[in-house]
Amino acid sequence: MPSSKPKGTRKPSGKEVGAAVASLKRLASKKTRDGMARYGLPSDKALGVPVGKIQQLAKSRGRNHELAAALWDNGWYEARLLAAYVDEPERVTPAQMDRWCRDFDNWGIVDTVCFVLFDRTPHAWGKIEPWSQRSDEFGKRAGFVLMACLALHDKIAPDENFLAWLPLIEKGARDERNFVKKGVNWALRAIGRRNLALHAAAVTVAQRLSASPQAAARWVGKDAFRELTSPAVTRRLKQRRPGGGR
Description:
This protein has about 250 residues and is mainly alpha-helical. It is about 65% helix and about 0% strand.
């Protein structure tokens, strides 16, 4: 008689986790690890595996929520990237999201987890406001990166959802920390690229930030304004059907 136990609920053995980490180590190179510093990524807890190879490994292993949890707890940079690719979005809980967010310690982990996993969970929208007001640099970045990812990937969300985030973006733009302001900038640009209505609102915010007496806000505003008013972006928006992200 077939088991009624849901697929993927078996806790992975230490051997399975060890095998996944061993696979990562076989794919690693000193050259890749040494090059991580050029991109602001820490190498003290990294093996040196290109993202493309991590994606291939994840595809070969398939989705496994329990394995993802064990890989995350392993702590290696690449193990945590692999965790993001193999986890099951529908089984991610709000508590897990907060726990992983507290562990964020570099932009590569933040962006990958938000881009390939967290923005596909049913809890993503509820994390934007609290995370965008966190005090730690990478936890706060996660709030804005998650904004950008939802703007890019959620094709049916109404404009009102994104307009409600613009005050958070204006507030966040005052943060001088490098990885926060870059996350804020990405969120503003992603919202402004969805459709003409959001574009107009984002450009208005960008203009206001460009005139700010604060250096971080000016940088966010000027960089976003430059991209959003570029011929390539405006032409693409005029050709797009009304609605978000289509």
